[in-house]
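# nightly structure sweep
# worker-07 picked up a monomer target from the shared queue
# config: single-sequence mode, recycle default, output format = C-alpha cells
# input follows
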Amino acid sequence: MSGLGPGSQWYRNVLAGQAVEVQIARLRFTPSVRPLDTDEAVGVLADYERRNRIAVPIVRAVLSKLAGFRYDGSAAARRRLVHALPLVALRPR
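# output follows
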C-alpha cells in the first residue's frame, strides 16, 4: 500500500520497474510488480481486516489519517481508500 498516495516516489519508481530488491525478514528477492485493480485491492484489504481483527481499530485509525477521511471499513470506504492509497503486488521473479 502506498501510504502517501499514488504520487509517492517509491510507488512511482516501483511501477516504472526500478525496484532493485525487497527484503521481508530474511527473504530477499527482486520483484515483479503489478498494481492491483480496485476490486482486487478491496478484496486484499477486506481479507487483511478479517485475518487481523485485533489490529483493525489501529489499522483503521492509521489509514484514516493517511487517506484524509474517516475509514470505517465499509465497502464504500474500502473502494475510496484503495483509490487514495493504491496497492501493488510484489512477487519474486
